[in-house]
Amino acid sequence: MPKIHHFELLPSTNTKAWELLESGENPPFVVTASQQSAGRGQWGREWISEPGGLYLSLALNLDLEVDKSAHLVLATVWGIAYHLNCQEIPVKIKWPNDLVLLGRKLGGINLETRIQGQNIPQAVIGVGLNWTNPVPPTGINLQAFTGNKITSIAQLTSLTSDAILYGYEYYCHHGIKALLDSYLEFFANFGQKIVFEGYQGIITGVSNRGELKVKLTSDNASSEIYIPAGRVSLGYN
């Protein structure tokens, strides 16, 4: 279990983690906050961080090529999904990096990296999970799940930290093909119909670069395309 730095209120756990790295703190370590005033989700979106949720960032030393940064996202979200399923919480993964429970959003990942040349030497992996905090209609918290075997925010913090490290270690030891196979076991979007740039299609999987694989079904299109993260929003049922 990495060292944990806990704060009652922070603008952002990711920002604090970078500050600690710059001050000489040795990774891996974890930053948590009871509440964030300026939490960040993926693509710079605001992450509402009311009391009762888990707001966690893990700082990590890496030896990863720049063009493989998506692998770290896949490893992180898979590691957390796997560990929650081991607790009999049937979490699935909504592409590319959301955790869903009973079709509603349980949490998400926000990866931030520093680049040197063609390598990523360090990353901060931010995770937000709904524990007892209020959520919108498309969300769910773990308290609302009757089969929940996690009894405290401390237990959830430990599980999440271990899960991130486990996911990365699994990737390092087994490679992207094995990781992607494991990721797809929890993939929530198989068979989902979408429209992308005017073309209709059906989601068939995820590529080893983290792109969404879509089989086009429009009359004038019959090929499979790969859509990078951030180009399409899949929504919630």
UniProtKB/TrEMBL annotation:
One of its GO terms (molecular function) is biotin--[biotin carboxyl-carrier protein] ligase activity. The keyword Ligase applies. Signal peptide: none annotated. Residues 1-191 form the BPL/LPL catalytic domain. The keyword Transmembrane does not apply. PROSITE patterns: BPL_LPL_CATALYTIC. It comes from the Bacteria. GO terms for cellular component: cytoplasm. InterPro entries: aa-tRNA-synth_II/BPL/LPL, Biotin_CoA_COase_ligase, BPL_LPL_catalytic. Keywords: Ligase. NCBIfam families: birA_ligase (TIGR00121). This is BPL/LPL catalytic domain-containing protein. It comes from Microcystis aeruginosa PCC 7806SL. The lineage of its organism: Bacteria, Bacillati, Cyanobacteriota, Cyanophyceae, Oscillatoriophycideae.
